[in-house]
Amino acid sequence: MRRAGLAASLLSACALAGCVLGPDYKPPTPPAGATAPLVSVDPALETRAEPPDAWWRLYEDPLLDRLVTEALAANRDLAAAEASASARDASIERRTRPNRSSS
């Protein structure tokens, strides 16, 4: 029990010492004309358009392409959402198409 108390005390002292060390951080001032972070000073560089569906391909990086492909394939939530959308579409199609048996 005494060792646990000593370990907790040392850990707390190290954590608090980390707050004291280091230079005084002063955030950089934004460039003139910028109203918020990540806002371009040059309006010609900004766009309100939606990014393309495969936005990562803009980087032309085969490793990034492979990683995104693997992530999409392994994403169970995405697969479940796709299956749910397919089932919904099939249900809507069944309800909206004319019933051939009553003719």
Element layout with pairings:
Elements (H helix, E strand, L loop, with lengths): L1 H19 L41 H13 L1 H21 L7
Tell me the radius of gyration.
28 Å
Average predicted confidence as pLDDT: 80
Helix content class: 40-55%
Query: How large is the share of residues in beta strands?
Result: under 5%
Number of discrete helical segments: 3
**CA distance, first residue to last residue:** 84 Å
The protein's oligomeric status is single chain
Flag low-confidence runs: none
Please report the total strand number as a whole number: 0
Class from secondary-structure proportions? mainly alpha
- Please tell me what the overall shape is: flat
Largest sheet: none
> Would you list the SSEs in sequence order as H and E?
HHH
What does this structure look like?
The chain has 103 residues and is mainly α. It has a domain at 56-97. It contains three helices and no strands. The protein has helices spanning 2-20, 62-74, 76-96. The protein is flat, with a radius of gyration of 28 Å.
Summarize the structure.
With 103 residues, this protein is mostly helical.
Features:
103 residues, 3 helices, mainly alpha, single chain
